[in-house]
Structures are given as C-alpha cells and as structure tokens.
Specification:
Low-confidence stretches: 1-14
Helix content: under 10%
Number of helices: 3
Number of domains: 1
Largest sheet: 12 strands, parallel
Shape: elongated
Mean pLDDT: 89
Oligomer: single chain
Strand order of the largest sheet: 3-4-7-10-13-16-20-24-27-30-33-36
Strand content: 35-45%
Number of strands: 39
Distance between the termini: 41 Å
Structural class: mainly beta
C-alpha cells in the first residue's frame, strides 16, 4: 500500500517547462492526484478486492483511489467515472479495459478525475469520453476505437504521455466549451486524424509525435476548425499524412517549432478565414511529394475572402526555397502560394501569394 501511495504522489508534478528553439513554455499543472482518501482494489487475490472496476467506483468517495491489478485483466466493462477519484492501473501494458465495441470504454462525467496506466481498447464511440473539467489522462495506451480520447464541453484537462494508435481519430475536442486543454508529449500513430480541435480556444498542442503509415486520403495530422481561436501548436512532429496541419476558419493560432515533413499533399493548409495566425521557426521538409495532386507543396492557403498578408510567416525552414540552391538569391523571400475567390460559392479562384520574408538557411534542431 505504501508503494502504491508513493506512485500516486509522484505521478504528476505541479509544472513542466518545455524548451523548443530557445523558447521555454511553462505549462502549469494542477496536482490533481489525491492520496488522502481510501484505496479500493480491483482484481488480484486480496481479501475484499472488487471483481469489477465499476463496482469499486460505485463504492468509492471523492478523493479515493481505485487501484486495478492486472491479474484479472482484461476487464470487459464500459466504465462510468462519476466520482472525483484516481483510477490507476498496475501496469499500462497489461491492465486492459476492453469496451467490447459498445459505447465508451471509459466515460468521465465529473471534474477532477485522473486516469493512468491502462490499455484501453475497443470503444465503439471512444476509448475515453470526457464531459467534465480539470481531469488528467496520462500514461495510457488507447487503441482500436472510433476516437481515442473525445472531449466535449471539457476544459482545463491534461492529456499527457499517452500512446494513441489505430483509432479513426486520436484526440477530438467537439464544439463549444473546450478551452484551456493541454495535449502534451503524446504519441499518436496510424490514426486517420491525429488531433482535431473544433470550436476550441486557448488549447496547447505541444511536443506530440503524430505519424500515419497509410495512404488513406483526407488524413490530417492536426486539424483546427469552426473558429477555433488562440491555440498553440508547438514542438510537434507531424508526418506522413495527406495534410500535416489543416486549418479551417481558425484564427490567432501560434504554430512554432514544429517538424512538418513528408506529408503527401500539404505540410500546412489554411482555408476559409484562417487569419491572424503566426507561423514561425518550423521545418517544412519534403511535403507535397505526391505528384497526382494538382496543388501540393509545403504550404498553401485558399479563401473566398482575400485578406492580404493577414498571417505572419517568419523564419521557417523551407526545403524548396530558391535561396538554398542559389546562394546569390538568399535575399529573396519564400513564396507561399494561395488562391482566392471574388464571389463566395461560385468557385472562381485566382492565384495570390503570401511571403516568409526571412526564411531560415538551415533546418532547426527540433
């Protein structure tokens, strides 16, 4: 019991400093894990241990810890967490919650819930569905669900250090009320959509690895849409998608210090009033290599309302910049191609351009 209590105490630190390209981003974390309640045990051979996770939660009180042994794994359950508790698995590789393709594997509907060290599989709707605030989801493996982690009307949540793969979408925030969420150091592999924010603001997507080893069309590493505002995309690796980062009607986004490479059509794609965004210090390498696309490249924008120079592009590394091939031309800016239309809905589009006035001469060490 002492060892378990110690693990609970040290799972989270109150803050984390993330360094990228001489920038230090301090991410404050509320230390939500509480160890002053009771510990309820699930599985194993101890006297009085519960046989199901749900039974233990139903008998827990706010502040308690439900500790799940891997002896009785997998647990075929659709767990509803309606208490402010710590739900802690013995080992993330061997403590399995299987939603058996019925609804959500885990449904979190109360604030200050912490879920750590599980493998969560086969959620028909989602692996973990979050409909509350101030939760921490960390050190889990989430696979084979429609959505790995699904947040709606959920704010101030920390999604940290999870392996999320082979889902339709890795992480989703859905419509209004999703604010100030942090997605940090997650590994997302082979999800058709990596991280998708919808009508979400003041969220941070930091130091995630987002890759897709498949040729499916309309795959996107990071997607911001429906007037998602004031978000930050910093220090991520985004590769092998059709669109590395795609934005639709999203404004005031900071995109900095990312490795955006080997995406088939575009590294970064801005569409429909995605304005006032700041794109700096990123590596754009080998994007747009699939020659079957008419329009392709490291970056592209398209809009029905032309707002010239409404986004800031500065000091990015572009592997197709002419200044890399011809040293006498390093005074030239990098041109970002785009299209705009005079009449909305008609589909008449004309070429236009934006510019990175100070492209980097070498790729950044990210």
């Amino acid at each position: 019991m002492g060892i378990i209590a110690l693990v609970i105490c040290i799972v989270l630190q109150p803050s984390l400093a993330v360094a990228t390209l001489n920038q230090t981003i301090v991410i404050e974390k509320s230390n939500n894990f509480i160890n002053n309640g009771n510990i309820l045990y699930v599985g194993g051979t101890g006297e009085g241990n519960y046989t199901s996770i749900q039974d233990a939660i139903d008998n827990a009180s706010n502040g308690d810890t439900v500790y799940v042994f891997d002896d009785s794994s997998p647990y075929y359950e659709n767990v509803v967490v309606n208490k402010s508790i710590n739900l802690l698995g013995e080992n993330k590789d061997t403590t399995v919650i299987d939603g058996y393709m019925h609804d959500h594997a885990i449904y979190v509907c109360l604030d200050y819930v912490n879920i750590s060290r599980f493998t969560i599989i086969n959620g028909m709707t989602s692996g973990i569905y979050v409909f509350s605030n101030h939760n921490t989801i960390m050190c889990n493996i989430i696979i084979n669900s429609s959505c790995g982690i699904f947040l709606t009307e959920a704010s101030y949540n920390y999604i940290w250090d999870n392996y999320i793969y082979n889902n339709t979408v890795g992480i989703v925030t859905f419509y209004s009320g999703c604010t100030y969420n942090i997605f940090l150091e997650n590994n997302l592999f082979n999800n058709i959509g990596g991280i998708c924010l919808t009508e979400s603001s003041h969220c941070k997507i930091v130091d995630n690895k987002i890759k897709y080893d498949n040729s499916t069309s309309l795959s996107m590493g990071i997607m911001l849409q429906e007037f998602s505002t004031n978000n930050e995309i910093i220090g991520n690796l985004v590769s092998d998608y059709e669109f590395g980062i795609a934005m639709c009607s999203s404004i005031n986004t900071k995109i900095s210090g990312n490795n955006i490479n080997s995406n088939r059509r575009f590294g970064l794609y801005l569409q429909h009033c995605s304005v006032n965004n700041k794109i700096t210090y990123n590596n754009f390498i080998n994007n747009g290599y699939e020659k079957s696309y008419k329009f392709r490249g490291n970056a592209f924008f398209i809009d029905s309302e032309f707002i010239p120079y409404s986004n800031i592009w500065n000091e990015n590394y572009w592997d197709d910049w002419i200044g890399l091939k011809h040293k006498l031309l390093t005074f030239l800016p990098y041109r970002i191609h785009g299209r705009w239309g005079i009449i909305r809905g008609i589909g008449i589009l004309f070429p236009t351009s934006d510019f990175d006035l100070s492209p980097a001469k070498e790729p950044y060490d990210i």
